Amino acid sequence: MAMEVTQVLLNAQSVDSTARKHAEENLKQFQEQNLPGFALALSGELANNDKPVDSRKLAGLILKNALDAKEHHRRLELTQRWLSLDGAVKAQVKGYLLQTLFSPVADARSTASQVIAKIASIELPHNQWPELISSLLTNIHQFQPHVKQATLDTLGFLCEEVAADVVDQDQVNKILTAVVQGMTAGEGAAEVRLAATRALHNALGFAQVNFSNDLERDYIMRVVCEATLSPDVKIRQAAFECLVSISSMYYEKLASYMQDIFSITAKAVREDEEPVALQAIELWSSICDEEIDILDDYGSDLTADSEVTCLYFIKQALPALVPMLLETLLKQEEDQDQDEGAWNLSMAGGTCLGLVARTVGDDIVPLVMPFIQENIDKPDWRRREAATYAFGSILEGPSPDKLTDIVKHALHFMLAALMKDQNNHVKDTTAWTLGRIFEFLHGSAMEAPVITRENCQQILTVLLHSMKDAPNVAEKACGALYFLAQGYEDAGAGSPLSPFFLDIVQALLAVTHREDAGESRLRTAAYETLNEVVRCSTDETALTVLQLVPLIMAELHKTLEAPEKQGELQGLLCGCLQVIIQKIGSAEPSKHAFLQYADQMMDLFLRVFVSRNATVHEEAMLAIGALAYANGAGFIKYLPGFYPYLEKGLQNFEEYQVCSITVGVVGDLCRALEDQILPFCDGIMTQILKDLSSSQLHRSVKPPMFSCFGDIALAIGESFEKYLIYAMPMLQSAADLTVHVPTGDEEMLEFTNQLRNGILEAYSGILQGFKSSAKAQLLIPYAPHILQYLDSLYMEKDMDEVVTKTAIGLLGDLADTLGRSVAALIGQSVAGKDFLNECLSSGDHLIQESADWAKLAVGRAISG
Known about the structure:
Blueprint (H helix, E strand, L loop, with lengths): L4 H7 L5 H17 L1 H13 L5 H13 L6 H12 L3 H14 L5 H18 L8 H11 L2 H17 L7 H15 L6 H14 L4 H4 L2 H14 L5 H17 L8 H14 L2 H24 L15 H16 L16 H16 L4 H11 L5 H13 L6 H21 L3 H17 L12 H14 L4 H16 L14 H12 L9 H14 L6 H20 L5 H18 L5 H6 L2 H11 L5 H18 L7 H13 L4 H18 L4 H16 L8 H15 L7 H14 L8 H25 L12 H14 L4 H18 L4 H6 L2 H10 L4 H19 L1
Helix pairs in contact: 1-2, 1-4, 2-3, 3-4, 3-6, 4-7, 6-7, 7-9, 8-9, 8-10, 9-11, 10-11, 11-14, 13-14, 14-16, 15-16, 15-17, 16-18, 17-18, 18-20, 19-20, 20-22, 21-22, 21-23, 22-24, 23-24, 24-26, 25-26, 26-28, 27-28, 27-30, 28-31, 30-31, 31-33, 32-33, 32-34, 33-35, 34-35, 35-37, 37-39, ...
Keywords: Cytoplasm, Protein transport, Repeat, Transport
Family: Belongs to the importin beta family. Importin beta-1 subfamily.
Protein name: Importin N-terminal domain-containing protein
């Protein structure tokens, strides 16, 4: 195989599909059957300057993919396979890769850099390949520009792949020194400076110690700022990307550099090429994000002694920053509204202006209003559009008091512009701005409403008319109607939309049938808006909502009969039916009339499952869950036909969202059918236990799966007995793993709290399921571990509010179900005293309610 690897690699890129497929199978077989030979052959191919560029590049990419995978279980498996290879083989492969950094072929060097970094990410955490970094640093000091460039690329990829705590500080210092020196103007070759600048971007996460040292930080910042003035546009762009990351990672260190940062960003925004100017704006957006997060998290609690401080950079820069951003709004592109992926200076400036408004609130309004007033009715469409965009951008952040009068005055003007302006861009932005008005300044909480019964009809007339406009304008009009309807969610009987409900529904259905509804997400927007209009409707319109059912079912039937795949439309239609089911399927008198359609609807949903589209499966599953809830015990007649798809959903590891939603549907079925679900529980429990034991299961599915144990136990009561010997040890093992979370890992803490909540809900459901049963005593052996778990969670002090409420509720369930049998254990536990007392005095009323109930249950158990 090694002899013919070049030809196989070339065949794998052949236009002949048969030759390509055969070559891919050969390579896969080679990897599975002889990994050492495979790794040596590919790395040797990559290193050989006499081989074709295409075969060398593909050799490197295949080798890289043999070391990594998206799926966690597969990545672990590939890592283990590499680590278990013979040391001499690994050394030879790594030697080939390092040799390739000297190749005159850029593609080969670049691919080798990525593979070296991937191997480093596997080996360095295991204290292997300790000489790698010093070997790379030697290259930088001794060799010609293309070797320096490849080496800097490698260091950059390495910093991207490897966790910061794996590399010791001495090596970090040496990497940063080499990288920053490579960025300086004294380094003649532009490609070396670019590689060094990109490497610094990846290495910034390693530089905490260096950024805490004034001299080192000053030097790094000076070199980065100088690089923003390089004659090479790619270097300038990369330097600004560094500044964006620095502003996020080291916000608290920026104060002494802000004057220089403003000067170089202003110059870039006004004078530089678009890729550089976009990064300069992104820098200010990043600072806004930091300050918004700080103010959201701490707000009025911020003091000089706070652990986190807000340095109010945006507020200080406001008088100069806002005019700069307003200038960018005039730099629109002619076709930006038709291009879904468009991103240009005008859009970036408006986005940043919106973030500035969220950061400083009311202070932005007087700085932006003169620009709006000056340009809103100018003959030049660019000025009208820019003024409208500026207005829409500042509607989130300032207080309603500051904006209400302005918006009331502007509303009539905006509606007229949407009807009469001759320019598509202006209408597009006007419809978007109206949507922002309805999103942020409309609703039951508004003291001085902008939308009144008097102007509501005019607003609707304009929006429904605009839904016949060009697809991009119609899509924004749908979005505006979405938020208009949402604002009346709590209006109760007499919603101002009710008299126009039929007109709205007909207009939205007409949009879905437009020939150009596939453009600008128009069909999707129309269905999303229809769903929101239905969801926020009142009892007065229930009959009209009911009339929608056969119409939407007919549309879904049409897609199932169509020869071409219509997965996206099927998903939208299933989603629409789900909302309708939730709205009228559980309320009398519409429920009885609605259930006449249940048989046909269920038949359609089952036919949808035949398609292989994950999104459609998700939507159909959610709709079936809603139908089960609405139908209650009557849903049992559909379960034999639906069960095979339920089982398939639980087995669907690859499309884990489908799996997760299916678990939720099991919960819906348990609540609807109660003990009628018993005949199907063996299959469901077997699959869930199998899922939870699998290394392939996506971690996000685990919390609802554990919670599902509780749903099943609540439904079937003491019949859950036969599953205890499987479920309880699994819950105990999972509980032990969730007690401690590494400090500082916010993402891990969030997931662990979800997992804790699923485990606690499972225990609660099982305890409640056995309440008042003679078999409740079967749970007594598990009580010490449950209390120990509650004690440990309390001692860790990192539960969120949801977990705290579920945990204290579980204490109550334990006392309520097992009574005197656990009274002494509860009395000795931390949970029964300190945790309970803390929850009783909680400021969160939901936690307090659960604690009150737990106190009563514990009191009854003790007095027994």
